[in-house]
Design goal:
Number of domains of chain A: 2
Strand order of the largest sheet of chain A: 3-2-1-4-5
Strand content of chain B: 15-25%
Oligomer: heterodimer
Distance between the termini of chain A: 62 Å
Order of helices and strands of chain B: HHEEEEHEHEH
Low-confidence stretches of chain A: none
Largest sheet of chain B: 5 strands, mixed
Helix content of chain B: 25-40%
Number of strands of chain A: 5
Mean pLDDT of chain A: 81
Order of helices and strands of chain A: HHHEEHEHEHE
Structural class of chain B: alpha/beta
Structural class of chain A: alpha/beta
């Protein structure tokens, strides 16, 4: 008889702590979330970065000129891809008449460059627009060193003597 | 509807609009709100943000190369040259190539080599890297990483002796002459 009396009608669980924790985590992930930039949106290749354990500094977010060396996933060929983090600088550099690129490329975020002379003109133009610009080389670990060597030679010519190699931390 | 139409009823005490008395009787004890939909949405958003965030941010290895115009004269005895052949094999020689022929070194020994030579010459050593343009970029970074790891130890050891570390380092292309020299090894 007593069993029947204790029958739970409308069982209620206090969810308040659960909700507290859920919202705490939610706010944390919402604030730390970084969304894809325009550059990444336009990118048609993925870069497998080399691992380096001694590096600790992070890639700067402001005044960054990124030179990517990627292998196209479809055509399998390698090329330089240039992008600038500042939108204003990008417009000035891409629309400069010293830079010999096709007109439709001037509207893009990433420039695909295969000619080293064009790259040199762009680097020089970038440095004249913004002297604080920092250069980063983000290359796929499978590319031949020749690509880096050519790039550093061009960078020396355009006086961009300090640059960063982008690497990943070994897990 | 409690006292709405009770004008002619037998309860004159209950006036129009006197809901308050009725409400007081319904006093809520232990108010419970169904939070299930809230929790559903919260967790949905939580999973979305958790899966869309990338926690690993790339790092950088800073390099500085001399401008093209600069030409530095160095003492040969203070020069350690590390060569990387087309097949990725690493060689080293100190000073002049003719008196000190290049020897093979394993990648994992580069760190010890850099530390030993730097401590021997106490801050005067110049490391020159001559890398073949045929090797994968990954190997170059691995080699630079080994040298960077050695660098922290060298800095520590030198500061223990009261010296300030000045790193001298050069990246130069591998010449055809070097290639010929390394062929029989």
């Amino acid at each position: 008889m007593s069993k029947i009396k204790k029958k739970r009608v409308g069982f209620v669980l206090d969810m308040t702590p659960l909700v507290d924790i859920a919202f705490l985590l939610l706010t944390f992930f919402m604030f730390t979330a970084k969304f894809k930039s325009d550059t990444e949106n336009e990118q048609k290749f993925t870069i497998k970065r080399p691992m380096a354990s001694a590096d600790t500094s992070k890639v700067p977010e402001k005044d960054l000129a990124m030179i990517k060396i990627g292998i196209d996933t479809v055509s399998n060929d390698t090329a330089y891809y240039y992008s600038l983090s500042n939108e204003q600088d990008r417009k000035i550099v891409y629309n400069s008449d010293k830079v010999q690129i096709p007109d439709e490329a001037r509207q893009k975020v990433i420039l695909k460059i295969t000619d080293l002379n064009v790259l040199e003109a762009i680097l020089k133009q970038t440095r004249s627009v913004n002297i604080r610009m920092r250069f980063a080389i983000d290359a796929d670990k499978r590319v031949k060193y020749k690509w880096i060597e050519d790039l550093t030679t061009v960078m020396r010519k355009s006086n961009a003597t300090i640059f960063n190699f982008v690497t990943d931390r070994p897990s | 509807m409690g006292g709405g139409g009770g004008g002619l009823s037998v309860q004159p005490k209950v006036k129009r609009g006197s809901f308050a008395t009725v409400r007081k009787k319904k006093k809520r004890v232990g108010f419970v709100l169904d939070m299930t939909p809230l929790v559903d949405i919260a967790f949905l958003l939580l999973t979305f943000f958790m899966l869309s965030t990338t926690l690993t941010t790339p790092q950088t290895m800073e390099m500085s190369v001399p401008p093209e115009t600069e030409n530095v004269e160095v003492k040969q005895s203070e020069l350690l040259t590390i060569l990387v052949r087309d097949d990725g094999q690493i060689f080293k020689f100190i000073g002049d190539k003719k008196t000190n022929p290049p020897e093979k070194v394993a990648l994992k020994d580069v760190k010890a080599l850099s530390i030993n030579e730097n401590m021997r010459l106490e801050n005067k050593l110049i490391v020159s890297l001559r890398i073949s343009n045929q090797v994968p970029y990954e190997l170059v970074i691995k080699l630079l990483d080994e040298l960077n790891i050695a660098e922290t130890e060298i800095t520590q050891r030198l500061s223990a002796k009261g010296m300030k570390r000045e790193r001298k380092f050069a990246l130069t292309p591998l010449t055809d002459e070097d290639k010929e020299d390394l062929k029989p090894l």
